[in-house]
Amino acid sequence: MLGYALKPRTRIKCPDCKEYIEPATVSIIFDYVAVIVLALLVFIVIPFMHLPVATSVLFTGVLIALYIFLFIPLTVKFKKYDYNMKTPG
Fold first, then answer.
1. CB 23: neighbour CB atoms within 10 A?
2. Phi/psi at 49 (nearest 5 deg)?
3. Where do transmembrane segments lie in this chain (predicted)?
């Protein structure tokens, strides 16, 4: 999951079966919505709260940590896609 959090929307190799899997479309939509909401909170809502700088930085760090360690593991679902690619020969 941490690899997905750092580089979303890419295929990864399944640790069990060693095949490549990709995040499902719903997971990508949830990820976009979460990133937009997080950006709005960090860049618009928190500055307008007029909190001390240390509190604002701490609050921002907590929001980012919640996104990486709670939201992504609970919402990302992977799916094996079959692109019907023809084999040469």
1. 21
2. -80, -10
3. 28-51, 57-76
Number of domains into which the chain is organized: 1
Residues 71 and 33: their CA atoms lie apart, in Å, by 11
Q: Classify residue 9 by its DSSP letter.
A: S
Its pTM stands at: 0.63
Please give the pLDDT value at position 5: 54
Q: Which range in 8-22, 37-51, 71-85 is most confidently predicted, on average pLDDT? A: 37-51
Which residues constitute the domain of residue 9?
Answer: 2-79
Residues 8 and 23: beta-carbon distance below 8 Å: yes
Picking from 41, 73, 81, the residue whose alpha carbon sits closest to that of residue 59 is 41
Q: What is the largest CA-CA distance in the chain?
A: 67
